[in-house]
Amino acid sequence: MNDILDQDIKYLKGVGPKRAALLARELHIYSFKDLLYHFPYKYIDRSKIFRISEINSTQAYIQIKGKIIGFRTEGHPRKRRLVAVFSDGSDSIELIWFQGINWVMKSYQTEEEYIVFGRPAIYNSRISIAHPEIEPAGKPEDEISSSFSAQYRTTEKLKSEYINSKTIQRLVSRLISSVIERVDESLPDYLVQKLNLLSLREALFNIHFPKSNKLIEKAT
């Protein structure tokens, strides 16, 4: 391995000292290498974008694309919740947050196009998604995309500081983009070829951002 993997995780873009301390305490991630080897525990196929009119509460996870039409708050001050009406033209659905309300309202804009991912459920007699993952419809150029979404273990403390599985995935994307070409092979070339193995670089990339189930199996 190149010495770059021994770099303190706080030097990765998007981390900094505060997040670095949390990652160290909660997940024992201290360095670039620790994050690179913080492997997903499962993958979710996100190759399909559903129309809202197709959604029902029996589906495990769904992905939709559309716009936030508006926000409103409901409930008493101690049990306040934020509701966003999200539409894709075929129908609308409610997105609900019970925590992080101020952060959500600062982070997402009405009439901007987003991709929403989460588990549909019945709330107040309507299908809704609580605490969905939301990202702009156009991915940043420096972000690696994959139709198989890696899910990373996190903790309640990290989630309360807005470091969820998606956050970790973004950090891994930045890390891989900057260091993967500097990862040294751990096995002799002849053995990699003889056993038809992925190189270490290919294996690490496909563990985090696989393109197919076959590559997941081969990488792991």
Account of the 3D structure:
With 220 residues, this protein is α+β, with helices and mostly antiparallel strands. Helices cover 30% and strands 24% of the residues. It has helices at 16-27, 32-36, 101-107, 156-160, 165-179, 189-194, 200-208, 213-219; strands spanning 42-45, 62-74, 81-87, 92-97, 113-118, 120-123, 126-130, 133-136, 148-151. Strands 6-7-4-3-2-5-8 form a 7-stranded mixed beta sheet. A two-stranded antiparallel ribbon has the order 1-9. A hairpin with a 4-residue loop joins strand 3 (81-87) and strand 4. The mean pLDDT is 87.
Report the β-strand fraction as a percent range. Answer: 15-25%
Q: Radius of gyration in whole Å, from Cα? A: 20 Å
Helix and strand run: HHEEEEHEEEEEHHHHH
Provide the helix percentage: 25-40%
DSSP strand count: 9
The mean pLDDT is 87
Tally the helices.
8
Low-confidence region ranges: none
How does the major sheet shape up?
Answer: 7 strands, mixed
Question: What is the straight-line distance between the termini?
Answer: 19 Å
Question: What is this structure's SSE topology?
Answer:
Elements lengths: L15 H12 L4 H5 L5 E4 L16 E13 L6 E7 L4 E6 L3 H7 L5 E6 L1 E4 L2 E5 L2 E4 L11 E4 L4 H5 L4 H15 L9 H6 L5 H9 L4 H7 L1
Parallel strand pairs: 4-7
Antiparallel strand pairs: 1-9, 2-3, 2-5, 3-4, 5-8, 6-7
